[in-house]
Amino acid sequence: MNPGFTGSPLDRADRLRNDVEAFNAALNDWRARVLGLDGLDPVVASEGGLKWISMAEVDVSVDLILLGLANGKPHFVPLVEGAGGMARSPAVWRALSMLPAEDAAIYGTARSLIDWHNNHKYCGRCGGSTKVFRAGWGRQCTACDAEHFPRTDPVVIMIAEYEGKALLGRQSAWPKGNYSALAGFLEPGESIEEAVRREIMEEAGISCGAVRYVTSQPWPFGGSQLMIACVADADGDQLTIDYNELEDAMWVTKDEARAALADAPDKRFGAPPPFAIAHTLLRRWVEM
Amino acid sequence: MNPGFTGSPLDRADRLRNDVEAFNAALNDWRARVLGLDGLDPVVASEGGLKWISMAEVDVSVDLILLGLANGKPHFVPLVEGAGGMARSPAVWRALSMLPAEDAAIYGTARSLIDWHNNHKYCGRCGGSTKVFRAGWGRQCTACDAEHFPRTDPVVIMIAEYEGKALLGRQSAWPKGNYSALAGFLEPGESIEEAVRREIMEEAGISCGAVRYVTSQPWPFGGSQLMIACVADADGDQLTIDYNELEDAMWVTKDEARAALADAPDKRFGAPPPFAIAHTLLRRWVEM
């Protein structure tokens, strides 16, 4: 199983972004498709995929971001207003459990871009207002001309492993009984391996040695995150939990993880949803 | 050999950042050390490491960023003005060839943080001016209270491999004869593996299958970058070079890479410097 939000069928067509003529031709292409949105939420079409509308149905005053090409057809998303942030409506969660993987990947890219635009209306350098350029893949300051590009924040998400058991934790806001991999933002000046060791030490008081990369996923909630999933070799299993970050943490066996992933009636804990990389990571770990 | 800019001996002491009292105590700790800088460049002390100065030598009007603790001693860097950006002075390059790895890691973190502050003096959401908070690990808008945190941009850097040969490229601005791994910014909505395949396709017209993660490194020039080094299995070796991105690209054998890394007189190409992850990647590849 591939990580969630990966596998978009769209060619990002980077070459069209700097070519104003080609971009305008794409905007005027009668085959163009525009992603239907309900606020920031996806709209699921009657056939079960994302709903696409035609250019004729779009308010002409709205900026359009070029998501890419599929079979030569340009695909856009309108730059709508929206708070974004970590808040996820129940509708998004429901939609993600229904959408084909390719459609979830397209939606994730669109949502991350919209969120970035809405949080970068002004220039960080001079405070001037910025405007869309590069087919929606950048903003330029109208005062100082500085160019700004969509950002992605790397996040490490990891299992510490000790004597065949994996360290999982839970936050109080999560559904009762659910546990997942520890995670945290990578900071300036850190490698992935250093960030993994620091986060496990900060949150659970566990020192780790070797760190093995497992897989990665883009995550479109709370901006645009790159989730980097790893397994780290723990030096011991004596927990010192940071209760500002976690409500609880515990060591689980592979059998317990299998039961959680299978949603068995006697499972010890609830697993993360399939489109979260913690799910993929746990699945890969039980197979290691 | 560890990748450059990794291995900082400082404990980042995240717990002190939200604790104003503890942070003030650190500022008033007589053992505190402050990183000496010449503009944005490092200053190499007579013993060969970074130069540290005492709190008494620092202009009281300058904000101090808490880099972390070593042996209980707080270590700071002054938030100086500076353009940062991709431009690297010859002095930085010379200093990096002399500094111990641990000191290069501390300097890299400091430089990335300074660069971030100088590019985020205004709030992207409302245009209001921002001020330093969280011991230098954030800025808060004085108008709308929005909190902003230091960003790091993930960059994929990779070798495509085909029948035992590695694909390397060169940009026209590089020293004559130097070749390195291809690289590019990861975009919103992509996994590491997807970004690797897209970049190799865009720059060299080569389609790739499996992508193997190798290692990672923070890079403090042009902001704060997370360099993610990979090897990708190429489906063929017929190059279609994007001359907007590259001046040239070529397939090299492991023997040729070894000669370049050893700086042999009859080498086919010049290798990247040891503190660049492309060097580490090439070294790991010849050992694979």
From TrEMBL, chains A, B:
Residues 150-275 form the Nudix hydrolase domain. The keyword Transcription regulation does not apply. One of its GO terms (molecular function) is hydrolase activity. Keywords: Hydrolase, Magnesium, Metal-binding, NAD. Coiled coil: none annotated. Pfam families: NUDIX, NUDIX-like, Zn_ribbon_NUD. Its EC number is 3.6.1.22. Its cofactor is Mg(2+); Zn(2+). It catalyses: a 5'-end NAD(+)-phospho-ribonucleoside in mRNA + H2O = a 5'-end phospho-adenosine-phospho-ribonucleoside in mRNA + beta-nicotinamide D-ribonucleotide + 2 H(+). The keyword Cell cycle does not apply. InterPro entries: NAD-cap_RNA_hydrolase_NudC, NADH_PPase-like_N, NudC-like_C, NUDIX_hydrolase-like_dom_sf, NUDIX_hydrolase_CS, NUDIX_hydrolase_dom, Znr_NADH_PPase. NCBIfam families: PRK00241.1 (NF001299). Belongs to the Nudix hydrolase family. NudC subfamily. This is NAD(+) diphosphatase. It comes from Sphingorhabdus buctiana.
